[in-house]
Each structure stands twice: as structure tokens, then as C-alpha cells.
Specification:
single chain; 276 residues; mainly beta; 13-stranded antiparallel sheet; 3-stranded antiparallel sheet; 18 strands
Length: 276
């Protein structure tokens, strides 16, 4: 029969071995209640101009729904080309003929009339790049390309929520940019799982302004995403959807409403994670 001293030694050895193993197992496979959860939406776009315009009004698709809150423009951030925050634009959610959208108004959008002049070798390889003004555009454009280099204003919005976001079927089931029309399912170009779903849709945007010289005002690509993330030490994962709309350029005096083509890629990531 084993002595009590020997049993005590065996018990201590077992504790010394099992406790670290149990701790390591918890780090790798923690129970659900130990996970941190984080769910969020993000929205980004831009407005650019290659000349100064006055009395500019831009109306853009914007998130709507329960998760957006009653004062969404308070979470809207606008930056100029130098990265300084702009606070003198008027931002408001307005009801349009196409539904609720965000309207941005600015007395003046400063835009530098500048270009990038590329020079190419006969074989097509670039050999020179220069930033120039309109007055510096050369008459001889042989083996050269002129690309507008406008002043860009960046716009972003984001919010976190205390519940999981529906990222597999977000249109109609989660906060989503609007207006959204003509939704049609399409094949995903890049899919890692058969559960992923892609759709095309259309939306609307508008821009009006006053300009004394020829100008190109561009509404940049609108990107809208939602993420559910969870993690504890080495165990981390997520699921998400991503939506975007095409840019819209206003040139040659064109102003007013324009149709934006949109794409949605939903159902990316894991859906077997721990519950909140």
C-alpha cells in the first residue's frame, strides 16, 4: 500500500503538470464567456476638385437603420488634403426624392489646379514625373501623359454597437447605405467559402457648385463595412460584409443627380463563433 507521503508527492506532481496544461488549453480553446466581442460599422468616401468652387452641395448615400442612431452626423469626420479636420461644413441627414441621405454644404472648396506630367521612353517605360500647374502644360505632349492631381477632402463615419450585426444578409436586416435599388445576386469574384454572397445594386448621389473656371469635381468611391470580431488571447476571428459604390466625376458643367453602381460582398468569415 502506498504511503500517505508518496500519495502527497504524486498529487503535487499531478497538480504541477495539469494546472499549466489546463491553463494553456484555456488560452487555446477558451469557453464562450471569456471572449471579448466587438461589432462596428465604418463608412468612407471623398470629394475632390482640381479648381476652387463656391457654394458646393454634395448629397451622398449614407447608412440608415437602428444602429445609426438619432444624430449620425456627430460621428462624421471630414479632413482636408493636409490631414486637418474641417468643422465648418454643414452636414445633415435630409429627406430626398430617393430617401434619406447625407447632405454636405461648404461655402468654398479650395482646389489647386495642378497636374502630374508623366514622360515615357519609346518602349513605354516612365522616365520622369513632375507636378505642374495648368500654365506649365507643354505644347508638345509626345510620349507624355497629363493626369489631374486634385485636392481631396476625406470623409469618414463609424459607430460601434453592443450586439452582433447581420453580415450575411445585411440589406433589410442591418443598417445599410441608402438609397439602394435594383439589387441582383451575382457570382463572387473572390470567395473563400461557398457561404459568401455577392450582389450588385445601384444608388444615387448629387453635386452642385459654382465655378469660374473649368473644373472636375469627383465623388470618390464610397466604402461601407460591418464587422463582428471576437477574441481571447490566441483565439480570434470575425465575420463581415463589404459594400462599395463607383466614383462619379462631374465635368464640363455637369451637375445634379447621378446613378452609382454598387457591389456587396457578404457572409465573409466565421459564423460558428461564441455567442455574446
Amino acid at each position: 500500500m502506498a504511503s500517505s507521503k508518496r500519495l502527497l508527492v504524486l498529487a503535487v506532481v499531478a497538480i504541477v503538470i495539469l494546472v499549466p496544461l489546463a491553463g494553456f488549453a484555456v488560452l487555446l480553446f477558451p469557453p464562450g464567456f471569456m471572449y471579448d466581442h466587438y461589432s462596428s460599422y465604418s463608412y468612407t468616401t471623398s470629394i475632390s476638385t482640381n479648381a476652387t468652387v463656391e457654394n458646393a452641395t454634395v448629397t451622398l448615400p449614407f447608412p440608415s437603420g437602428e444602429d445609426v442612431g438619432s444624430d449620425p452626423t456627430s460621428d462624421l469626420w471630414i479632413y482636408d488634403g493636409q490631414g486637418d479636420r474641417i468643422t465648418d461644413w454643414d452636414a445633415a441627414i435630409v429627406e430626398t426624392a430617393h430617401g434619406p441621405m447625407v447632405r454636405l454644404q461648404a461655402d468654398r472648396l479650395v482646389g489647386e489646379d495642378r497636374y502630374v506630367l508623366w514622360t515615357y521612353a519609346p518602349n513605354g517605360s516612365p522616365i520622369d514625373r513632375r507636378e505642374i500647374t495648368r500654365d506649365e502644360i507643354p505644347e508638345n505632349m509626345t510620349n507624355r501623359e497629363l493626369v489631374p492631381d486634385p485636392t481631396t477632402y476625406s470623409i469618414s463615419w463609424g459607430v460601434t454597437v453592443d450586439h452582433d450585426i447581420e453580415t450575411r444578409y445585411p440589406i433589410g436586416n442591418a443598417s445599410f447605405i441608402g438609397p439602394v435599388n435594383d439589387v441582383t445576386a451575382t457570382e463572387c469574384r473572390y470567395a473563400f467559402d461557398e457561404a459568401e454572397r455577392c450582389s450588385n445594386f445601384t444608388s444615387m448621389a448629387s453635386a452642385t457648385y459654382e465655378a469660374e473656371t473649368p473644373v472636375v469635381v469627383t465623388i470618390g468611391e464610397i466604402s461601407f463595412e460591418a464587422w463582428n470580431e471576437w477574441g481571447f488571447w490566441f483565439s480570434n476571428s470575425f465575420n463581415t460584409f463589404e459594400a462599395s459604390t463607383s466614383p462619379a466625376a462631374y465635368a464640363d458643367g455637369r451637375q445634379g443627380w447621378t446613378v452609382l453602381d454598387g457591389q456587396l460582398h457578404a457572409g465573409m468569415g466565421r459564423y460558428d463563433g461564441p455567442k455574446r
